[in-house]
Specification:
By secondary structure, the protein is mostly helical. It has a domain of 347 residues. The protein has 26 helices and 11 strands. Helix 1 runs antiparallel to helix 7 and helix 15 packs antiparallel against helix 23. The longest helix is centred in the N-terminal third of the chain and has 57 residues. It is found in: Membrane.
Length: 813
Amino acid sequence: MQRRLRFLHAQIAADASVPPPDSLEVPPHFDARAAALRLDDLDAALARHEQALLQMNAHATSLTLQRNELVELRYVLDKGAAFFSAAPRLQQASYGSLAMSDPSMEATGPVYGTHAAEREHSPPLIDEAPRLASARHPSGTSLAYYAGVVEKLKVPVFERVLFRATRGNCLVRFAEIPEPLVDPASGESVEKSAFMVFFSGSEVKSKVAKICQAFAANLYNFPEDFVAQSTAYQQCLERLADLDTVINTTTVQRSATLHEIAAELPLWDEKVRREKAVFYTLNMLNYDTSNALFIAEVWAPTSALDSVRTALNKGRHRSHAQVHSILEERPVGRETPPTYFKLNRFTTVFQGIVESYGVAEYKEVNPAPFAVITFPFLFAVMFGDIGHGFLMFAFAAWVVLNEKRMVRRKLGEFMQTCYDGRYMLLLMGLFSIFTGFLYNEFFAVPLDLFGSRWKFTEESVMACGIDNCEVPSAVKNPVSPYPFGFDPVWKGSANGLLFFNSYKMKLSIVLGVCQMVMGICMSYLNAKQYNSQVDVWHVFVPQMIFMNATFGYLVILILLKWSIDWDSPACRADPNCLAPDLKTVLIGMFMAPGSLPEEGRLYPFQKEVQVVLLLLAAVAVPWMLLPKPLILKARYDAKKKDAYRPLVDEGETAELLSSNSGGEVSAMSGGMGGKGEAEAEEEEEEEFDFANTFVNQMIHTIEFVLGAVSNTASYLRLWALSLAHAELSDVFLEKLLYLSIESGSSVLMIVGFFMWVGLTIGVLMFMESLSAFLHALRLHWVEFQNKFYNLHGSGNKFVAFDYDAIREAEEDN
């Protein structure tokens, strides 16, 4: 039935007058209409429609072929008469030496008109020669001819082959047919040309006939005298008119039939699709022959068991079944259940991003709830701008408000992607507005919302705080800082870029280390869920120690440096109270443990604390490497030692084997061999390979230690892309908008404004947003999820029996 439905769809798609139905949309009142439609009746109806359309197609093909032949015959008669009327008077002995073609002799229009009587008495083609015969040599004739039609593309080759095959002893005339003919087999238009070939002799005639056959040329009978030609032409026109009437009637009838089919096709598609899915599922059921029962072993969410029971009862009532369906919960056993997360329209896109990396194992921690916040926030750190974030938020809000209308429409690839991720775009725009207020940028323009806390004076090239500027040359910071975000004066200052770079670089490290530490904490939840104390004490604990003793300590130094008022009176009075370079402090902690320069001191006993942290990091590495494989090996050895072993005396076994015959020994060996293979398979599943386990643990340890450095450095992309976004915004604003305004030309202002708008939307809103999205995606996949997610392989996703999912899968294919 699906083959017939595809045939009906193809027939409707080929007819431009019939609007194609949407077969992937559930028709209205489907349940009531489908219940009244039996599958056998549908199969008969589809067969009937298929047979009717096949007959219509065959009839239409036959009519099209007949019409093409009549059109070709009409032009052959028309152009052939033109050939004869325009032919020069030739001597009988000179026909074999004529040129291959003469453009002056091509037809220019129909020759059958009001002066037919005059043309009836026109002189013959050859003086005092017998009349021409159509490819025949009757008694007394010297020339014969073929008239027909050949494809226009084959004309040059056809003419050349005729010339070479007859050694120039033929005359060929061509005239293009202005009306393209439709090939019923391919449905494409084919341009053709009418031709006449004049020749003499039976040998040349045979060659010309074979050449015409080789080039698939259609030959037609061309009468000799003008009266017969005119009569044939008129008959051809009459038959052609009658045939056009029949073709139009057939086309209208076929179109009406297709309209009727198109109205019911969505119902038939959905009915067949659902029946096929049901039968496919029924084929996977087990049949109990003793009790004549079908047994289905399925996975179902625990929360949906009541719904399953309700559905079974409803199905029994609809089918009028006498026996109740029994739903029995069975223990899972050693088989791992599939992974199922209950989603909605908001969380689906975030779960899709996580599952693009891999499907979670059963009861493994799902990173999607964390990604709802962390993903748009990390994106906004790189894309922070109030104006750009508002444009993204407004577009996403428009899609969300129109989602019910868009879900019923066929969207393009770009709009479909935006529709699927509409809630993610909404949060990305909202968080970008927040970070834009933090960076104080509105299309690269700073906003003075609370009043700047700095002012410039003539006494100093550097600004001083408006509430702390008694001595301008002292360049003191304001006592009351800007309430939220960056002070707008930093945007135009000479050292503003250094200030922004320092802040964003440190912020990137803080955010990165916090997210990685959270990922390590998620590994603890996984280990606790699977009751793996080895992973808790010998994976989670040393990883936390190593990460916090190195880069966690760096985060503490950053926060501590930010919390100290380096411009306080006490600090100004102390010559050693200088803001340290944290890069130098961290490098000295590893390269020169136990030594700390005075300008790098942030708190008391800093040198001793750094030595302790370095020792803890050094101890954590072998702690991650050695205990886990050794403990697993000890457990395996203890389990193997306590396992059951057969107690058989070797002498008795040898005596037993020697007393049995060869056949009995073979049978016994075969039976024991079969049992041994089953036991061997079970032992093979539980076999412990210490070397493989140790190498894997060594790889994980090295990967974590090196990854702690590389992943922390990878988070600096937050700083780099935020800087690139801000600098591009500044360049577009200054070079396009400000320069055009400074020029004073209204034309340049308009051009500069539209160029600024175009580059802002094209480069910043599309290219920059895509770049920030991909970098945020990489940070979640590589730097965050690899700490705890899919460490033991990917799980199996729970796929419920759902008609909508089946329909969407068919749409994707």
